[in-house]
Amino acid sequence: MRNQRLNPIIILTIILVAIVLAMALFLTVLFVQSRPATGTSTVTVEGVDVVVNADPNQQVIIVESPGQGGEATAVPPIVLPTSTFTPIPLPTDTPIPPTAVPAPDQVIFVSHQVNSTDTLYSLSNQYNTTIPLMARYGISAANLVPGNVIVIAVANPAYCPGYQPYVVQEGESAFSISQAAGVTLDQFRQMNPYLDANFTIQFTDVVCIP
To answer: Comparing C-alpha atoms, which of 110, 127, 109 is closest to residue 118?
Structure first.
């Protein structure tokens, strides 16, 4: 076979095409590396290049007034903070529980100088007391020495404001005392607010009657 020689023009053409393709590839890579990220654009603000987001749903377009030759500048939106309202509870009045008033003492003590004619019975008539109540606080016939000063327990008038204090005798109950005083049990309870629900009273206790 005879050796065929390549046409120099064809060889030159191939070389030029290869150079053009290489330059195109180089320019493509350079463009891809230098272009801004997707969704952004570069604007010049007062001589400084600024990359801004190119979101048409959020950006604000500021256009200079006509006739000044200005260009539209993309400005990011200004997001104001959302204020959160926290209601302040109003102060409430706290009810103050009523202070329990202690009951006055049922008995008080009075001094008495014994006379020659004094007996326990006469003393029970002279003072609002009874022989058992005097005995409860240590007074007996042996103490009735003429000239001696003894201390006698008597019903306290302050225990029954507006009523009469009465010393409970042996065998008496709230019902029998209220009947003798001519009042109902409800009225008797009103006069004696310190009684429990069962109207419990003890021998030598002091109750209030009309």
So the answer is: 127
